[in-house]
Amino acid sequence: MEKTLNNKAWFMVLPVLFIVALNAIVPLMTVVNYSVQDTFGNNVFFFEGTRWFTEVLHSGRFHASLQRQFLFTFTILVIEIPLGVAIALTMPRRGFWASVCLVLMALPLLIPWNVVGAMWNIYALPDIGLLGYGLNWLGFNYDYTQQPTAAWFTVILMDVWHWTSLVVLLAYAGLRSIDDNYYRAAQIDGASRWAVFRHIQLPKMKHVLTIAILLRFMDSFMIYTEPFVLTGGGPGNATTVLSIDLVKAALGEFNLGVAAAMSIIYFLMTLLVCWLFYTIIMQGEKE
Amino acid sequence: MARITLDKIAHSYLPRPTTDADFALKEIDHVWEDGGAYALLGPSGCGKTTLLNIISGLLVPSLGNILFNEEDVTRRAPEQRNIAQVFQFPVIYDTMTVAQNLAFPLVNRRVPKGEIGRRVTEALDMLDLAGKANRKARGLTADEKQKISLGRGLVRYDVNAILFDEPLTVIDPHMKWQLRTKLKELHRRFGHTMIYVTHDQTEALTFADKVVVMYEGEVVQIGTPAELFDEPAHTFVGYFIGSPGMNVLPCEVAGDRLRLGGREIVLKRSYPELRGCTELGIRPEFVRLARPGEGLPITVSRVEDIGRFKIVRAKLEGYSFDAVLPEGAEVPEGASAVIDPIRINIYQDSHLVRGGA
What we know:
The complex is a heterodimer of chains A (287) and B (357). Chain A has twelve helices and two strands, in the order H-E-E-H-H-H-H-H-H-H-H-H-H-H. With 287 residues, chain A is mainly alpha-helical. Chain A folds into two domains: 26-58 and 255-287, no CATH class; 73-241, MetI-like fold, CATH 1.10.3720.10. Chain A has a two-stranded antiparallel sheet with strand order 1-2. In chain A, helix 1 crosses helix 12 (256-286) and helix 3 (60-90) runs antiparallel to helix 9 (193-221). In chain A, 27% of the residues are buried. With 357 residues, chain B is α+β, with helices and mostly antiparallel strands. Chain B has two domains: 4-240, P-loop containing nucleotide triphosphate hydrolases (Rossmann fold), CATH 3.40.50.300; 247-353, CATH 2.40.50.140. Chain B is built from nine helices and 22 strands. Chain B has helices spanning 48-56, 78-81, 98-108, 113-126, 142-154, 173-190, 201-207, 225-230, 235-240; strands spanning 4-11, 25-32, 37-41, 63-68, 71-72, 83-86, 161-165, 193-198, 210-215, 218-223, 247-250, 252-260, 263-271, 278-282, 287-290, 296-297, 299-305, 309-316, 319-326, 336-339, 345-348, 351-353. Chain B has a six-stranded mixed beta sheet, with helices on both faces. Chain B has a four-stranded antiparallel beta sheet with strand order 2-1-4-5, with helices on one face. In chain B, 41% of the residues are buried. Chain A binds chain B through residues 179, 181-182, 184-185, 187-192, 195, 198-200, 203-204, 287, and chain B through 53, 56, 58, 77-79, 83-85, 87-89, 91, 93-96, 104-105, 108-109, 138-139, 149, 152.
């Protein structure tokens, strides 16, 4: 069949371009605008060049929240990915119980983020919350509103509760795609349980796991609602991750220039990680 | 090496089988002699793979016992039975190289390193994979992958038996011949008991000394290729083996007389009184076409010239009836069919009846 060439077709893309411009490009440009200017009110702006960027990059506060951000993301990845895979491995492969497990696993994912925050906020309260009260009853001195360690423990536990299911579902989908004959052949070959995992299950899950890591990385790197509702970034600055710090700077202190510069640095980091994962996934498919 | 005895084995995939139809594999009692090359032949879904998986231990039969030599292994896991099995679709370990794939079953069994190296090298040579030994297995073609699957069975030459579950399905036709010849050669060299599942009669007849024909979960005949051709024990075997298959026509038999199409044929043997559905079976190879009036009246519907011979598709009293003519033979106008009475088999309710002299 002859291909019809008609450059007017490009006009079909215009509506999408328009929408993307309105909801992404224009706001981003506003931020870029703020990041290089200063104002003393009355809508009068002065050009400041790279001053805010230099300031942010040298600020101890930014470094601290960035460190907390990486610590948080790293910790939840280290817990959620192996835990998710382990749960997926123990789930039944088919039948009634497989469906039951899937529904149970999907439940936490259906709860809105601020509700999760509110739930854990109450659940972990040392005086009335089941978890908080229970831990104290068991002899632990636990109060997440006062102790940084307890606050971290609670934030991470909450995230693990909320998002491990996602890893489970993705890993489970990967496992289900493995033909029974692989397991049979491995049995005939006398492979141990570990060898089956290492040489059959893990390689087959590689792609979905890359996606799981990407999704969990991005989500946790941009996390805001849950820790905000749970701890508000406290006690002190203990759980102030990047996004919370950013909102504090922009809306709490009205430090528009600094906040805008932070946003752009934040945005570029996210973009870099996305690109890294994209490259890894595309390379995996080429093989 | 072992003689494998199936002692009244039956299998159902249902938890509480009641009727005969619930069984994927109906009762079978058979001994696979040590060192034999067997083919399990039958259409898809006839229970071949079920039987194979019972022998290898992937399935525990609902009824009966399985013995290796004198030892009962019914409840033993595959790795304890020391059996190799090759599946229909290639199974390879993606992350390993070709050589590592072949070494895997040996490594799992803690075979000494030097021994592993020696056997893997030998297997690589046998399968013409030596040049690719250190390549990752994932990038290979389907038939190379299947060769690796075969190889993982072949490296273990102390196995009790090697089972093949339609192993050449994904292989190119010219490679099929090559691999089948290779398997025959290996069989001669190492004398393993080999059981080869297939639905392809050519494959079965060329590979095996003894062919086990299965139909609807039942073993209908066990025999040499010649026996299956000359005296099919069940009409299904007649249809299934031979190309074209055996002609099966309802008829009447009394003593040594057979009535068909208004004519009487004198048989070589005489039969007792037959009840139920009585049929005769005659191979198209033993039908001769003659001038009208000389034999049974037939209507020829088409002639297929396939080079070495011609297949005549015809109707006899409304039943389809084939004849094979030698190359160059003409189909006479308004032909009739002459049947070689010596080659007629008589069936009662689909099972062969052997007459007396």
